[in-house]
Amino acid sequence: MRTLLEIRNLSVGIERGKDVIPAVRNVNLDIRSGEIVCLVGGSGSGKTVTSLAVLRLIDYEGGRITGGEIIFQEQDIASLAQKEISGIRGRKIAMVTQDPMTALNPVFTIGNQFVEVIRKHKSVSRSEAWDEAIKLLEKVHIPEPASRMKQYPLELSGGMLQRVAIALALACQPELLIADEPTTALDVTIQAQILNLLLELRAEEGMSILFITHHLAVAAEIADKVAVMHEGSIVEQGTVREIFAFPGHWYTKTLVQSKRDLLTSSASEENRQDDEVILEAEGISKAFPLKSKPFQPKRYVQAVDEVSLYIRKGETLGLVGESGSGKSTLGKLLVSLQEADSGQILYRGKDVTGGTKREKKELRKNTQVVFQDTFSALNPRWKVEDIIGEPLRVHTRLSKDEIRERVEEVLQLVDLDPASRTRYPHEFSGGQRQRINIARAIILHPEFLLLDEAVSALDLAVQSKVIDLLKKLQLEMGLSYVFIAHGLDVVRDISHRIGVMYLGRIVEIAPAEELFTRPAHPYTKALLEANPTIDLDRKRERHVLHGEIPSPVNPPAGCHFHTRCLLATEKCRSEAPAMESLIGERAVACHYPLEKKERVELLR
Amino acid sequence: MLYVLSRFGMAAGVILGSVTLVFLIVNILPGDVATLLAGDDVPTETVNQLREKLGLDRPLIVQYLDYVAGLFQGDLGTSYANSEPVLDRLLDNLGPTLALTISSMIVAIVLGLILGILSAVYQNKLLDGIIRVLSLVGVSTPNFWIGILLIWIFSVQLHLLPSIGNGSFEQLILPSIGLGITGAGVITRLIRNSILEASNEPFIRSLRGKGIGHRAILFKHILRHALIPAVTMVGMIFGEMLAGSVVTETVFSRQGLGRLIVDAIDQKDIPIIQGAILFTAAFYVVINMLVDISYRLIDPRIRLNEK
Ligand SMILES: Nc1ncnc2c1ncn2[C@@H]1O[C@H](COP(=O)(O)OP(=O)(O)OP(=O)(O)O)[C@@H](O)[C@H]1O
Ligand code: SF4
Ligand SMILES: [Mg+2]
């Protein structure tokens, strides 16, 4: 194979006022034609800056190439003038960006955006361009492409939009596609679909792909070659097997190790202390009204539909499921941040759904929340001690000195320097800010913590440290957690039991290990199969779940999952399966649970 | 469609509301109109006759209903001062005011767009600095002051343009600039900020990555976004201009609705006051309705969100 792109000693600086801060240093990378190369690394490691430099888009974002060459088809992109690059950009090298929701201009139709790009590069008429666009959409398996052309980006789901963005990038049959975290904003099921699509397109079109991700397992799934980036340099590169089986550089080693730790450990039953049930939900439901036109019947999104569950003292219950399945809403109902429409929530056996103000305040004290966004939860103008101490000021009558003492204590508990209490949030890294959030949540010694995507925004290495902290706190304080996350591996790592949600219902609930090794619900199995893994020997014949989660406004009758289930029968289409207990603590809502081997075979 | 209809309903409601409000204010104000009109030292008899003639002896509610019923037949009453139909007086004065506000609006939009774009393109350069200072001055200086300044420079000192009266195009230039400059300042600042904001949208990066040229990105994609807040602003600026025309017409001795109102207030010519305010309110409402509708054309997200 010939070499398509050769990056030699590339250095890029970002201008900050008068200074130029080096963001990428002496990067060397080759991409051969037809090859998929993954650039892997933590946030801020320089992956995106490198890719923007290849297209010289970095010039528009306050950056400048300070040294080295980018040889593409015998031309050095690094030394071309902006004018000369326009023949390459979009035509020979195309780009797909991270968040499909913001990658397209929201005020133009999909069709218009295609026509603009196609006609920029080819001299064709508007209607020819239109027809070509429809073919491109077909190529990325968009259903009903002709009608999509007339829609606005807002009307499509994230997965669909990412397909559109890929189709748009393919418009001129580029030889190199740069994909910057193209699946990070998507569900695992949709991610698996997009990864498959990219592999398929590579085979059909023979193009090369520079794939950027922070997600090791995704790299392991798709790459031929992996380059690991850390603090602006490529610290190691090699084939997938070389990197994952025999990592050389210390940074790669820690990355691979923290991923392996995730996979092997999972909160075992032994370290749960108690059998006492803290929180219990019985048939709780919540619907949100949709904005509707006058004179039309109100329509509702059934976000949570008749869910029952319990959480013991010192136990973690994980919640997984595709976006919009109702995880966050369920979490908020459990801590009374939102009120259930029906059903009961029992806290230590007492119904709290219709409590008095004082009871509610007491409950708030005992149940705390930590969300994903590490920044917006923290008032930027407050010192850390004010932020962490605030719950004490609201709920107790401690003196200033006592509060300070407690704050220092709790800072130590979350492994932060007690002296840092006088600093401001922006002086901390993402991981440290999440520790501050956790400190604030535990200062009142609550019994129950809702962790909604609490570690999702953090890099893998940081993530595993925060998870360790959460486990330690659980043991020391006997805390119970409801842990919500997109990453299945993380949920497996921290949870004792896991509930799988689909369109507002819990379809399966089971101890973590059992759920991962012997899923009983077809949806659980599909989720697990979509989950990428770095275990190269477990390359399996993947069955990718087709289609997307249906609209929660009008969910399919019977079993909600029947539209995507390979086992669905007439009964499934008309009759909703009830939650039934299997052996031990397992329960599943399916007419034909996969407890028997024949059924598992059927799915293959 | 439903939307457009409901907008019309709302517009009618607003106009009727303002008619009612003005009617109440004018009639509740202290001072007996007939006495005021008749002047001092007139026998009570004459005053009473006048009151009867004007129909002011009837209960307020009857006067109100009579007035509103008249409105629906296009009858806005007759002027106390010279017994002409109010509608005719208004229509005579409508033209000059329309010409003034529309040309001021053009000044505001054209100047605002050009300066705003320049300012954003040359962000933090000298030109941007100059434009930002100018637009700040434009926004914070009162209209009449700018008017007087313009007269002094262009008429008194340079003898370039006429300062007063209406009729010719030249006579329109100075007043439109005087009235339009505040709006121009507001639009300049708004366009500059929204262009800079839109330039940071992630899709701009992907457009560049697709090889779309600089110009197309600025004028098609970025500007379209920047226009969305600017269009809303136009409706508000129009209201300011209607209010400002009262002063501007006085400063430049122009004929127009503004002058008519000022004179009518002097002469306690209540039907004229009411009619002029009705006209102004209707104007304002219509313009804002157009703004709302065009807003939805520019930004499909608004339409889609209602689905
Ligand atoms: N405040 C609200 N008003 C209206 N609809 C809402 C509201 N909150 C949630 N929904 C809807 O309820 C459904 C469930 O949402 P929820 O946020 O609980 O899902 P989730 O599983 O947490 O998704 P994600 O993984 O994206 O966080 C969605 O269809 C959502 O659009
Ligand atoms: S009930 Fe039927 S459709 Fe639903 S998951 Fe089970 S087999 Fe599939
Ligand atoms: Mg959520």
Give the tags:
heterodimer; A: 604 residues; alpha/beta; Rossmann fold; 2 domains; 6-stranded mixed beta sheet; 22 helices; B: mainly alpha; MetI-like fold; 13 helices; 79% helix; binds iron/sulfur cluster
Tell me what you see in this structure.
The complex is a heterodimer of chains A (604) and B (307). By secondary structure, chain A is of the alpha/beta class. Chain A has 22 helices and 22 strands. In chain A, the strands form four sheets. Chain A has an eight-stranded mixed sheet, sandwiched between helices. Chain A has a six-stranded mixed sheet with strand order 6-7-8-3-9-10, with helices on both faces. Chain A is globular, with a radius of gyration of 26 Å. Chain B is mostly helical and 307 residues long. Chain B has two domains: 2-72, no CATH class; 94-306, MetI-like (MetI-like fold, Orthogonal Bundle), CATH 1.10.3720.10. Chain B is 79% helix and 0% strand. Chain B is built from 13 helices and no strands. In chain B, helix 5 runs antiparallel to helix 6 (126-140) and helix 6 crosses helix 8. Chain B starts with a helix and ends with a helix. Chains A and B meet through strand 6, helix 4 and helix 7 of A and helix 9, helix 10 and helix 13 of B. The complex binds adenosine-5'-triphosphate (ATP), iron/sulfur cluster (SF4) and magnesium ion (MG). Residues 521-522, 559, 561-562, 565, 567-568, 572, 577, 590-592 of chain A line the site of iron/sulfur cluster. Chain A: It comes from Terribacillus saccharophilus. Chain A: InterPro entries: AAA+_ATPase, ABC_transp_ATP-bind, ABC_transporter-like_ATP-bd, ABC_transporter-like_CS, Oligopep_ABC_C, P-loop_NTPase. Chain A: Residues 5-256, 279-528 form the ABC transporter domain.
